[in-house]
From TrEMBL:
UniProt keyword terms in alphabetical order: Membrane, Transmembrane, Transmembrane helix
Organism expressing this protein natively: Lacticaseibacillus suilingensis
The name this protein goes by in its record: AzlD domain-containing protein
Pfam family, one: AzlD
Membrane-crossing segments per the record: 6-27, 39-59, 79-105
Length: 108
């Protein structure tokens, strides 16, 4: 491994670390306006929604995305469980069990 590659890896790691740590340090020393805090409260929901929707789609080059029916079928009871219980553990358990049943029955 050349010094150039090693330096690139170390500097990339440093930049990544700084981008993750500096915002926490800045926020800890200052108070954010209420509007910013309210806006930032939606970030986790937006990220989880993007991951969820991405798992329901199948990439097809040169065509519209298709639907991953196995994931869609397994997500239905999980979403219902989330609405009813609001328990992450229950949602995960129902989702895993639903996926296991779908694969066992060959519906995917």
């Amino acid at each position: 491994m050349t010094n150039y590659i090693l330096l690139t890896i170390v500097l990339s790691g440093l930049v990544t670390w700084l981008l993750r740590v500096v915002p926490f340090v800045l926020v800890k020393t200052t108070t954010l306006p209420a509007a910013v805090v309210r806006f930032l409260s939606f970030v986790p929901v937006a990220i989880l929604t993007a991951i969820f929707v991405e798992s329901l789609l199948v990439y097809r080059p040169g065509a519209w995305p298709g639907v991953n029916w196995e994931n869609l079928l397994a997500s239905l009871p999980a979403v219902v469980t989330a609405v009813i219980t609001k328990s992450l553990l229950a949602v995960v358990l129902v989702g895993v069990i639903a996926m296991a049943v779908i694969r066992l029955l060959g519906w995917g």
